[in-house]
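Intended use. Records like the one below are meant for learning the mapping from a protein sequence to its folded structure. Do not use them to infer anything beyond what is encoded.
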Amino acid sequence: IMIRTCDADEKEEPQATGGTASNDIVSNYLRKKKRRFEIQFQFKFKKAPDSQLFLSCGYEDPVQLSLLSKTSLGAAMKFCKMKNPTFCYSLSGKENASEEDKKEGNYENPHFSFPIETSLDRIVITKEGEKP
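Structure written out for the chain above:
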């Protein structure tokens, strides 16, 4: 898996980037600034996944924030959710769960999560025996 700015290395804007209009805006901005962002992952599944894959970041305890910071972060998360309805998050973890839910483990730890296909610019899938 390679995450990178779409077509930002090309000197001129290509006619069709294959991305969305918002991707093109970011790529054109980065093309002039010579800023790059790229992360590459390569892995092999032991078996094919049964469902959708997610890119996620989670932690055990909620981050201690001031009221203003918590409100700003909540607004930013709602904006992300509005732009990408498949975005999933929890800021509070077990702090808002009832005592019974805490005992039974019926709560989510704080996390941010996106389905892979909506959070990565490009995904390359190679079949077994092919070169990546």
